[in-house]
Specification:
heterodimer, A: 240 residues, B: 229 residues, alpha/beta, Glutaconate Coenzyme A-transferase, three-stranded mixed sheet, 4 helices, 26% strand, transferase (chain B), CoA_trans_fam_I (chain B), NagB/RpiA_transferase-like (chain B), 3-oxoacid CoA-transferase (chain B), 3-oxoacid_CoA-transf_B (chain B)
């Protein structure tokens, strides 16, 4: 088995118009910047993919990454918990102009919906958001005297994630808090592509240290020196 | 009538944070909300060491590193760079919120726009304008054994923040157990505000005048004392 993909461009080439795409990361931590930028390159070269639904904790920062996807006009809808950042202009402008849809989901509910999607659990009950406007229209049930909100699983056509080590079987490790949503998204997408700092032969990652087992991963592409969103933002970089 | 909000004697934010920190026990698992609540970590009493949790997947993180030494994969929920303490752990987001909702945290401390006498909290948006953003606020109010609010007692324009019923959109229902304000420490018990401590320089009537719902006592009200910070 060899899940290695030769380039970031090849890795994202199958993502079509209208796809739902989970993108890993929490702010810039664990964000697959090179895969996102490869997707933007593809859009600028071919006009697609567009009308994407993007699932991420945030909605981009500055003029790179998801913000640059929004600026380019590729994103129809964001599903996220916190569409604010130090420079949220890309999302804010389009949202206030009515040009992008927002499904706002509490952060823990977002994580659990993605986990449920990957685990084959169509719905679950959570105390989060009970009695608030984010529970409006949802099924409520009482268990042991407390009220809970029914939430549905979240799945995607593609997930693009960032990991640290990947082997040819797709087993992944992560870097510190860069783990965040990445392992969950690997599980919840029909096709998962991971950019990793280093691809190693099968057997080089101790099975005790595998965080995402390769069964959840379809492609692994090496980006040896990944950029950090935070540093790009501080440097005022715009990806266009 | 202009309300006398006793601005002259009120505690600073640091002093409010200091007072809340005195109630966090050694070895407690604690989540501090983004912003003002993060200040509580600075004021742990000597000899006590809480273990701080951040939603994005770290237990037992410490202070910010020196400028230039940041690792941007090592950040807190406010996306600020942090460091690790011995015994730290990383985990993914679903495990992180299992810690929150599953009752594994001892204390969560949050800011507030309004707290109602029944424990309802409003702290995520003040109206329907702009871009809504909730983050982990609605999750954090469920599951921790104690959910504290730290806040000014009144708004900048002198309106009560401790109210009969929240008028801003709710973050959670009946979830707050204690409020540390610029003037008092108040428990929420049986749907009522019960005063535990107040500044010695004010009367109960003055405190009541700044509060949007009836204050109660069920024992002596202690003096709220804090150091100069």
């Amino acid at each position: 088995m060899d899940k290695t993909v030769g380039s970031t461009a090849d890795a994202v080439s199958a993502i079509p118009d209208g796809a739902t795409v989970m993108i890993g990361g929490f702010g810039g931590s664990g964000a697959p910047i090179e895969l996102i930028h490869a997707l933007i390159d593809q859009y600028q070269a071919t006009g697609g993919p567009k009308n994407l639904t993007v699932i991420n904790n945030n909605a981009g920062n500055g003029r790179i990454g998801i913000a640059a996807m929004i600026d380019a006009g590729m994103v129809r809808k964001m599903i996220c918990s916190f569409p604010r950042s130090s420079d949220p202009r890309a999302f804010t402008d389009r949202y206030l102009a009515g040009e992008i849809e927002l499904e706002l989901v509490p952060q823990g509910t977002l994580a659990e919906r993605i986990r449920a999607g990957g685990a084959g659990i169509p719905a679950f009950y959570t105390p989060t958001a009970y009695g608030t406007e984010l529970a409006e229209g949802k099924v409520i049930a009482e268990f042991d005297g407390r009220h809970y909100v029914q939430e549905r699983w979240l799945k995607a056509d593609f997930a693009i994630v960032k990991a640290q080590l990947g082997d040819t079987y797709g087993n992944l490790t992560y870097n510190k808090a860069g783990r965040n949503f990445n392992p969950l998204m690997c599980m919840a997408a029909a096709v998962t592509i991971a950019q990793v700092s280093r691809i190693v032969p099968a057997g080089d990652i101790d099975p005790e240290h595998v965080i995402t087992p390769g069964i959840f991963v379809n492609g692994v592409v090496e980006v040896a020196h990944p950029q950090q969103e935070e540093e790009l933002i501080r440097a005022g970089v715009a990806y266009a | 009538m202009t309300l006398d909000t006793r601005e002259d004697i009120k505690l600073s934010n640091a002093q409010i944070a200091w007072r809340a920190a005195q109630d966090i026990e050694d070895d407690a698992y604690v989540n501090l909300g983004i912003g003002f609540p993060e200040m509580v970590a600075r004021f742990q009493p000597p000899g006590r060491q809480a273990i701080f949790h951040t939603e994005n997947g770290i237990l037992n993180f410490g202070e910010a590193p020196p400028a230039g030494e940041e690792d941007w994969d090592l950040i807190n929920a406010g996306k600020k760079a942090v460091t690790l303490k011995p015994g730290a752990a990383f985990f993914h987001h679903a495990d992180s919120f299992a810690m929150v909702r599953g009752g594994h945290l001892d204390v969560a401390i949050l800011g507030a726009y309004q707290v109602a006498q029944n424990g309802d909290l409003a702290n995520w948006r003040v109206g329907s304008k702009g871009v809504p953003a909730v983050g982990g606020a609605m999750d954090l109010v469920h599951g921790a054994k104690q959910v504290f609010v730290i806040t000014e007692h009144v708004t900048k324009d002198g309106k009560p923040k401790l109210v009969d019923t929240c008028t801003f959109p709710l973050t959670g229902v009946g979830c707050i157990t204690r409020v540390y304000t610029s003037h008092a420490v108040i428990d929420i018990k049986g749907g009522r505000f019960v005063v535990r401590e107040k500044l010695a320089a004010m009367t109960m009537d003055e405190l009541q005048a700044m509060t949007g719902a009836p204050l109660h006592t069920d024992g002596p009200v202690a003096e709220l004392t804090v150091p100069t910070l």
